Amino acid sequence: MAKILLAEDEEVLRMLVVDTLEDEGHEVEEARDGEEAIQFITNNNYNLILLDYMMPIYTGLDVIEKVRKELGKADAKIMMLSAKNQKTDQQKVMEAGANYFMSKPFSPKELVDRIEEILG
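Structure tokens predicted for Response regulator receiver domain-containing protein (120 residues):
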């Protein structure tokens, strides 16, 4: 079982992902925006952080930058979930410090398979 943070501002998608991951035995905490995500990350350690690209207050890119530079969590595993899936967008995400990128929309099975691959 992994401890996962999901930062996603769309409630329906957040509920779907949480239900899917909890059914697989993972512990999932939810943040509704980038600011809340940073608070969770500051106070907890996660096996994986799932970030939406476009969130209120801080974007996923902002969160990655703060995690890597300000919070000193250079080894945190971060996956960006985004409908912005042009090569240039993916490149920005990876350059910001994400480890993985997954395009929206995605199937629950696709997400579970990818997370299992990441976590080993």
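The beta strands are 3-7, 27-31, 48-52, 78-82, 100-103.
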